Amino acid sequence: MTINPTTAADPITSALTSSGANGPKSQTLGKDVFMQLLITKMQNQDPTKPQDDSELLAQLAQFSSLEQMQQMNTTLTNISDFFSQAKTATELAAATATTATTKS
Fold first, then answer.
1. Domain map of the chain by residue range?
2. How far, in Å, CA of 62 to CA of 91, rounded?
3. For residue 47, which phi and psi values (nearest 5 degrees)?
4. In this structure, are residues 36 and 43 in contact, taking their beta carbons and an 8 Å threshold?
5. Whole-structure pTM over 0.70, yes or no?
6. What is the separation, in whole angstroms, between the first and last Cα of the chain?
7. In Å, what is the CA distance from 77 to each residue of 30, 64, 102?
8. Are residues 12 and 38 in contact, defined by beta-carbon separation less than 8 angstroms?
9. What tens digit of pLDDT does each residue of 12-68 get?
């Protein structure tokens, strides 16, 4: 039985290509690609030397941490947008009030 050394790399290569990680648009890997790479790694590991559980748990913890930071970033962006809109509305109301009092 012959084993092609590039067979295991095909899922990784296709994951990187489909995510756009090799293209000029994106230089980061998304969470879907991370999970696909993790699953591919587990499928292609040596059955006589399985991956250490602590290493897998550390990777999953990093993944969870990354996802939480992305959610926090989205929330903070929404809060920032809200306050920007509130500031704009306040400035518009102040300008309208100033114009109304100068005309009187």
1. 12-45, 64-104
2. 43
3. -65, -25
4. no
5. no
6. 94
7. 19, 20, 37
8. no
9. 555 445 544 444 445 566 778 877 887 888 888 887 877 777 877 887 888 889 889
